[in-house]
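Q&A log
Question type: sequence-to-structure
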Amino acid sequence: MALNSKEVVTDLSPLLKVYKGGTVERFFNSPYMAPSLEDPTTGISSKDITISSDFSARFYLPKIKDSTQKLPILVYFHCGGFCTESAFSILHHNYLNLLVSEANALAVSVAYRLAPEHLLPDSWAVLQWIASHVVDNSNIQKENWILSHANFNKVYIGGDSSGANIVHNIAMRAGVESLNGNVKILGGFLSHPFFWDPENKKENVEESMIYRVWKFAYPSAPNGLENPMINPLADDAPSLSKIGCSRLFVCTSEKDELREMTGLYVETLKKSGWKGEVELVEVEGEDHCFHIFNIQSEKAKNLVKLLASFIKN
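Response status: OK
Response body:
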């Protein structure tokens, strides 16, 4: 072991530390959970698929009454500040099992590559791969669960925290660029979205966690915190009227430090001229992404029911 191996060059506690030499020690990583052919609690089946060298995913399928039954498809992006957590962690596995059970949907939980080893994920590529399943002459290796059970008239994207940030940016891209087979995104949910608040007047902005995470995840971001990817309300950000879906469900919590920005985002969206429908829900007495960390609480279960209802209806 090198003598300088314990010299910290980046301290992003409580998420992670980076040591001289490039070693990354992640603290905010829940244990791995294997997929299951039938979860004993929900009956959900899951399996892992490698999509490309950049992406893999965990698929979730509810019990099927008819082999030809078509289901809404949810493409999900996990939380973790772009640099921690996994689609294969016990936290997200339990969460997706419950959500899929309630929504009766086919879910694809994307295992995108993490910072700092990789820049922000090009998650659009995953959507293109899924959409390619409707193209007969597509040269991709197709997934049977998608071919057999995906209803491409009901494509949803969803995510929590940094995952919700990814969802917003995918939806914006879908407003100006087509998916393979001209597949459309019907709706998306943004849970506790990870956005920078342009109204934030804190004197020590550089000490805030969102600043530190963003600079770490995308150090070369043009305009820093004014980049539209982290600040969708920046002066040079494209209009939210361009969001490429017709339904959005946005949720936050009373104690979430990003709550005010979430409300401002929805308010700006409503005034933008966007023709879709948006619903904002705020959970009393809870903090950022509380439902991920305590999925068995009544408030968490109630929020999951709301998310599932959005997908089903």
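Response note: The mean pLDDT is 93.
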